[in-house]
Amino acid sequence: MIFQKNEKCPVCDKFFTDNDDIVICPDCGTPHHRECYNSLGHCANSDKHSEGFEYEYISEQKDADKSPNDTVQGSVYYQPNGEDSRSDNENDTSPMPDFMSQFKTDTAYDNSEETIDGKKIGDVAAVVRTNTQRFIPKFKRNKNISWNWSAFIFGPYYLFFRKMIAPGIVFLALSLIVQLFAMGFYAEQYNAYAQFITSNAGNYSELMNMMANPSAELLDIANGIKPMFNIIIVCNLVLRTIIALFADKLYRIKVLKTLDNVDEKLKNGGSFNQNPLFSVSTNLSQEQMKKLYLGKLGGTSIFTPLIAMMSLDIIVSLIQRL
Q: Do the bridges between strand 71-73 and strand 2-4 make them parallel or antiparallel, or are there none, so unpaired?
């Protein structure tokens, strides 16, 4: 990336010069002196990243009036160890491609020599991808029990969201077993309730009116089915509490296991091959491709919990028809 000399470092507020070692924030494009970035530990505008902030260069408004000699060559993306931020090909000066933005991680962790169970903290952050500021400290402390509000609110679906498929299936199966047990124990009351809903489902306004002004028959049906719903609610609250207490520990295990599997493949002679689609625009190093691969394996998935939810509905519907 090339920018004009009239840009200032947001940390020290000094203009950039030809001799400055400059790094660019991969999230918003803000330029910094490398020394300033290292001393701060993160981008000066990191608090704005969640709002989609993008740094606007003064030079972008005055490019037509500037000559090529008024420019300073800055690093393409942040390399905290001070190495050249280009790819392995010395003649390649192309920037980090835009498609890598979907695998963004907090580059501050790349500057750390710390490890978690022998794994580079930068690699751990690459797998976590999102909300690293919460998970990395918890992974360091390595407590067996902690509290995760998202896991409590969303229950097993949170586990699927974080790609913890096996634990998600286990807790979803337990939730299904509780629901089926309660429905079986109160089968007569449940059948009366289902029959009432089915017989009145064709007239929505009348059904709502009956719900608002319940008859004695409807009250008997509701009172009969109420214990079943209470059992399901209480048991699900217990399951969600268990998930909330152990979700962070389970996620730590999942992340480290992912890194173990990747490292094992690399030790056995595996390597990363760049997608031909991007070979024309840039040449990525093995480390860059590893970060991409870890980001693909980790991160979050909105589709997995949706699939789990639909699968549960299908299973319950099929069981009810038996």
A: antiparallel
Helices 286-297 + 216-267 axis angle, to 10 = 160
Tally of helices (H runs) and strands (E runs) in the chain: 11, 6
Tell whether the torsion through CA atoms of 114, 117, 121 and 122 is positive or negative: positive
pTM: 0.62
Per DSSP, 8 falls in state: B
The candidate with the shortest Cα–Cα distance to 80, out of 13, 128, 23, 2, is: 23
Q: Which two tokens stand for residue 175?
A: 């939730």
What distance in Å separates the CA atoms of residue 298 and residue 292, rounded to the nearest whole number? Answer: 10
pLDDT in tens, 240-276: 999 999 999 999 999 999 999 999 998 888 887 766 6
Reported as type and span, the H/E element at residue 123 is: helix 121-128
Q: What is the rounded (10 degree) CA torsion for 211, 215, 221, 227? A: 70
